[in-house]
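S2.1 Query sequence (TolC family protein)
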Amino acid sequence: MRPYYLTLLSLFTFAVSFSQDTLQKTYSFTLVESIAFALENNYSAINADRDIIDAQKQKWEVIATGLPQITGDIGYQNQLKQPVSLIPAEFAGGEPGTFVPIVFGQQHQATATATLRQKIFDGTYIVGVQATKAFLSYSANNKEKTQLDIRKSVTEAYGNVLLAQESVRIFEKNLETLDKNLYETRKIFENGLGDEESVDQLQITKSSVENQLKNAVRLQDITLQMLNLMMGIAIDAPTKLEENLDALAQKKIDLGLMETELNMENNVDYKLALNLNEQRFYEWKQAKSRALPTLNAFVNYGSSAFADNFNFFNSDQKWFDSSVLGFDLSIPIFSSMSRSASTARAKIALEKAKTQLTEAEEQIRLQLDQSRSQYILAIEEYETAKQNLKLAERIENKNQIKYTEGLATSFELRQAQTQLYDAQQGYLQSMVEVINKKTSLEIVLND
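Output structure tokens follow.
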């Protein structure tokens, strides 16, 4: 028994170890890798793939309605009370002028029939088959739209994580400097060489930075969870980002993108508007085709049996075969103007779709101009924020020296520190804006 228990213990230890390794798996991504991962695993991306498959099945569903259809029917009747007919009595040797009741047929009846039907001509079917191509195109374009939305969302989430991480690092560094200043100022005050206001001023600044640090730490966790959600992994999974904010922002500065020409046919919003036009066009054609006749053919084969008792499964039961070949021709003649009104409404919907397509083109051009302007502004503000940060650091450093030498007050030092902290956050935010605005421009250009 001992080897048996040792084997169980080994298996249990391996299972626990394997489970822990699985739970502790750490993901590591660059921005490009995180987008690629999200395009495969994001929940919306997965459903977009399913929509494509659904569209393909729907296409075949439409096509199959025009292919041969075979149905089978089995029927059984038990005439609990058989109908009675009256015949002249003289037919049976009775008195003329009187009638004799008689029952025709037998109490039990069973039938089995198979019918083959085939459309020969149906205008609505022809249009429906043509429309399936447009529906597949819409599903593909809708998937592309979903992928672009995922790309934008992941980029923003990735940048927000980097922003939160950089904020934590900067606040920790600022807090370290403040602790040193506060310690030195308190010692000076305790030795009677300074005033209490200086200590209070630094304490106010420290408390503010401590709160900002706590909030940045919380945001760091939340933004990482949002990124995990966008990529389609467990929100609590440990994820490591391989890029830093400054390097990524530098990589995203590409003024050559401003010269890229817009190819309207590549823009996904234009393609979706075009799909709407195609859909409305086929709806109009289908409305018109309802005025055309429809022709179907059918052939069936069946067998019937009759008995006084239920014995249809007996080998000696007689079955009587029958078969029919026929055609159904349906010709619309008068619908009290219903078809005309339906066609007119479909025509109006088509004209509205054409107007919406024109509007979509103008909106895309406007969106392109806005995206270019916002991208240029983001780059300019990034350069300005970088210069402002250098100036704020220089001013804060000078005030640190002056304060140490007694040439500046604690209030002046606090102003310089607050200005530095604002410049730091402005610089971080400007880098995120460069990353996001470039992504928005690329999506418009479908680059």
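The longest strand covers residues 108-121. Residues 25-66+122-292+338-445 form a domain with the Outer membrane efflux proteins (OEP) fold (CATH 1.20.1600.10).
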